[in-house]
Amino acid sequence: MRQIIIxxxxxxxxxxxxxxxMNFSEKMEVAMALxxxxxxxIEAGFPIASPGDFESVVEVSKLVKGxxxxxxxxxxxxxxxxxxxxxxxxxxxxxxxxxxxxPIHREYKLKMSADEIVERTVAGVKRGxxxxxxxxxxxxxxxxxxxxxxxxxxxxxxxxxxxTVNIPDTVGYTTPHEMFERIDALRNRVPNxxxxxxxxxxxxxxxxxxxxxxxxxxxxxxxxxxxxxxxxERAGNCSMEEVVMAIKVRSDIFDAQTQITTQRxxxxxxxxxxxxxxxxxxxxxxxxxxxxxxxxxxHQDGMLKERTTYEIIxxxxxxxxxxxxxxGKHSGRAALADRVKSLGFELTxxxxxxxxxxxxxxxxxxxxxxxxxxxxxxQLVLHKSNRNDENxxxxxxxxxxxxxxxxxxxxxxxxxxxDGKQEVKDSNDGGDGPVDSMxxxxxxxxGLDISFREMNMLSVTLGEDAQAEVTVLIxxxxxxxxGLGVSPDTIEATAIAILNAINRIE
Length: 506
Ligand code: KIV
Ligand code: ZN
What we know:
The strands form 4 sheets. This protein has an 8-stranded parallel β-barrel with strand order 2-3-4-5-6-7-8-9, surrounded by 8 helices. A 3-stranded antiparallel beta sheet has the order 11-12-13, covered by helices on one side. Strands 14-15-16 form a 3-stranded antiparallel beta sheet. The chain is of the alpha/beta class. The termini are far apart. Strand 14 and strand 15 form a beta hairpin. It has 17 helices and 16 strands. Helices cover about 40% and strands about 20% of the residues. The protein has 3 domains: about 1-275, TIM Barrel; about 295-390, no CATH class; about 395-505, Alpha-isopropylmalate synthase LeuA, regulatory domain (Double Stranded RNA Binding Domain, 2-Layer Sandwich), CATH 3.30.160.270. The structure holds 3-methyl-2-oxobutanoic acid and zinc ion. The site of 3-methyl-2-oxobutanoic acid has 10 residues, from strand 6 and strand 7.
C-alpha cells in the first residue's frame, strides 16, 4: 500500500477561517495534539504575517518532535528568509513557498507574465533550498491554471530543488474527475515528476474538497493538505478526519494508508472546536454528534442484531468512547484522572488538581457527571491554564449574580465580581434580556470599552440538568476576543464566558 503524507494546515489556513483565530497557548495545545495524532507535516503559520505568527512558528518548531514543521512564505526573499528563521529550531523543518500561476491571478493580482512567474519560482525555490533541504512549492490557483503552463512551472520548481509540489484548488472550483485528470497529466507530462511528491490542497467552496483530494490520491498524489474539522478560508479545506477515514475504510479502492492514529481524531476535533469556538455540526461525518447515533427503529433493530448492518466505522476507532461512564460526587481523583486519560487528554498533575476542584463543584450541582461534562471541564482548565502566555492573566471572576425578570419588562441584574484583589458589585435595570443585562453590568464594573459581538450556546450532554457551554465574541478596539464558559446555569455560563474574553484583553 502507498503511504499518503498527511499535511495539516489547521494552524495556518484553518486559523484564517473567520472567527477561528487562536492565541499562543491554544496554538501550542493544538500543535501538540497534531503531533500526537501522527500528522506527517504541521503547517504552523505564516511567519512574515505578524510577530505573533513568527513567535508561534518558533515555539511550535521547538515543541514538536515527531512531525515535520512547516511555515508558509510568498515567493520573495524576505518571506523565505523569515520563514527559515522561525523554523530552524525544528527537527525537520519545511519551507512552503507559494506563487499564483493562474491567468486570473497573473493578470489581476500579480501583474506578471508567464515567463516572470517561472523566473520567480526558480529564484524563490533556490533561495529556500540554500537554507533548508525540505522545500514545498505551491502553484496557487493551480486548478484554474492552463495545464501546459502548470507542467512548465512544476518542472521548473522541481529542477530548482522543490521536493514537494502542491496543486491547490484555491477557490474550490474543480471536480473529482477534473482533479484526477490534472494529477494524471502532471505525472505523465512533467519529465522530472518522480523527483518530487505531488500534493493537493483542496478548498470546499462546492463541497467537494474531500472527494477532490481522494481523486488526486487515485491519480497518484502522495500528500493531502487538510485541516481538523475542515476549517479554512471561506467554506474551509479538506477535512482531515473525513479524508483519513475514507482512505482507511476504503483501502480496497485507494490501496493506500496514512500514519494517523485514528483514535485521536475525535479528541483532536473536540480540542480544535473548543479553542476556536467553532462548533462541529451535529451531522458532520466522523466527528459530529449524530455520526454514530441510530434513531430509527429499523436501524436500531439492525444494529442490535449485527453492528455492521448500519455502521461502517466503529466509534472507538475514531476515539469516541464506548461507554459514557458516569462519575459522581463520591468519585475520587484517581477515577477522574483515569477517565480523563481514556478520553484522550494528557494533563499535568497541576491541571488534574484544578480539574478535580472544578469536578467536585459540578458534582455537587449535578447528580451525574458524563464524559461530555468532563470534556467541557477539561477544555475549560486547558483554556484557563495560561501556559507561556503572558497575555492571558486571569483577573476578573464571577462571585455571584442576582436576576429578576419577567415577560414584557426589563430585567434587573446585580453582579458581584472579584477583580483579583477585592469584590465589586453593581446593578442595572435594562438590557434586552438577561444576557444583555449581564454584559452591561460587567462592562460597567470592568470599565472597559467593549461591545458584544456574538454568542453560541451548546448543551454539553443530554437531559434537563445538562451543562451549557457558551462561547462569546467580544470586540475591544479593532480586536475580537473569544471566551468560553461552562455551567449548568446558562446565565452563569454566559457571565463566565464574557469574563474569560475580558481577561484575554487585559
Ligand atoms: O489555498 C491556497 O492556495 C493556499 C496556498 C497558500 C497553498 O492556501
Ligand atoms: Zn488554502
